[in-house]
Amino acid sequence: MTRMKRLIVLLPIAALVLVAACNNAATDKQWYKPNVNYTAADFERDRTACTDKKSKVLDEDCLKDRGWVALGGDIGPPVKAPDPTTSKGTAKGKY
User: Fold this and answer.
1) Average pLDDT in the 73-94 region?
2) What is the rounded CA–CA span in Å between residue 63 and residue 53?
């Protein structure tokens, strides 16, 4: 019975450790150079040069200065369509 109690206590702790380890992962971005032929070695060289050695944080501005663009980075925030019922300056009931 003590083994079962130990298992009941250790299983939630192991689950919490696993969840904490997964949440610590940085968000991955994909990078490319538009209209340029490049290799994975080219990106790895620039990524290494743009990563702080102590904190191991990628400086995205450094990559952008080297010509890299985040995939999907050219997509702006969504634009809300205007509400036709509250539009200003238009005659209502024209048609």
Assistant:
1) 66
2) 15
